[in-house]
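Reading a protein record of the kind used here takes only a little practice. To see the layout at work, look at the sequence and tokens printed below.
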Amino acid sequence: MSVPHVTELNSGEKITAGDFSSATTQPPFRYERVRGRLVVLAPRGPEHRHVSRPFRRKLNAYWDAHLDVVEDVDIEGWVNITDETERIPDICVYLTASNTQSAVPSRVPDLIFEFVSADRSDQERDYIDKRADYHAIGVKEYVIVDRFKKSALILTWQEADYAERVLPATENYTSPLLPGLEVPLSEAFSS
């Protein structure tokens, strides 16, 4: 059996978990598998990279300084949601305290960060679909950084649903899961 090229498949076509995990892809496009079907995602633009830059920089520095707290920071991680759905979050953080024997993509990240894109379907995916997916697998904190609203929505896991906290551009992102980390949202939203 030959390795599939997802570039030969159209968005919406059926793809197995095995084929998805071994497929060759066409950069700069990104791919997810939702309900057994391929989803082709647009490349990250410069605006997306600008908004995520302070988070990438601060999270990596925090990881380096706190190896006892953070086991890994994964940019464009890979997460199994169900047997039929696999997501590629912008940033996944894995804490040492919750180290399990599971490996990526079966290991659940403790924190996930998504940076909202301009396309309406991308926004719905971040705010609705991924919110439900990440809650279902037990992601402790899901952070949606929205450059269009100039705010961040911090979702903290609770049994029924996530608890919500909105941070405006004038505040710093902090988390009890990452003691001492501060990311000024003003850096993410500066022109």
About this structure: The chain has two domains: 6-41, 46-189.
